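This protein record is not my work; I was only asked to verify it. Where you disagree with what is written, explain briefly why. This is what I was given:
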Amino acid sequence: PPVFDAPAVHADEVETLPPDAIVTVTNDYSAVQAAEIRHDGGVFWGVQYHPEYSFLDIVGVLERYRPILHAEKLIADDAALDSLLADLRALHADPGRRDLAWRYGLDAQVTDPQLRRTDLRNWIEHRVIPTAAARGHG
C-alpha cells in the first residue's frame, strides 16, 4: 500500500542530508525516515525505522530504554512497561492475537512477519537488484 507501518524505536534524526540525497520516506516523527544517498560513485539506501524487528527485538530495545522511557514520561511506571512487554512477547508467540493488536493500534503490516518485511523485499527487488543489474553486477 502507499502507506505502511513499521517499528521505530528511537528519536534519532538526520539533521543535514548530503548533496544529491533523495528522501524516500517521511512521516510525522521525522522528515527523513529513509533516504537514497549518492557518494563517491555509490548509491546507498538507509532507513531510520526497523521493519526487520520482531516483537522480541522491540522488547529488548524497550528494556534497554527503560530509564529513558521513565525520564521522558512515555510510561507511567514499571508495571505499565512490564505489561506492554508481556503483551509484545504474547504477540511474538501468537501474531494472530487480534485483541492485543487492537489494543495497540497495530494492523497486519506490523503483526504479520511476512507483511512487515514487504518494504525490505520491495526495496531489494525494485531498487537494489535493478540498480546492480544496470551496473553489470546482476
Residues 11 and 29 are 8 Å apart (CA to CA).
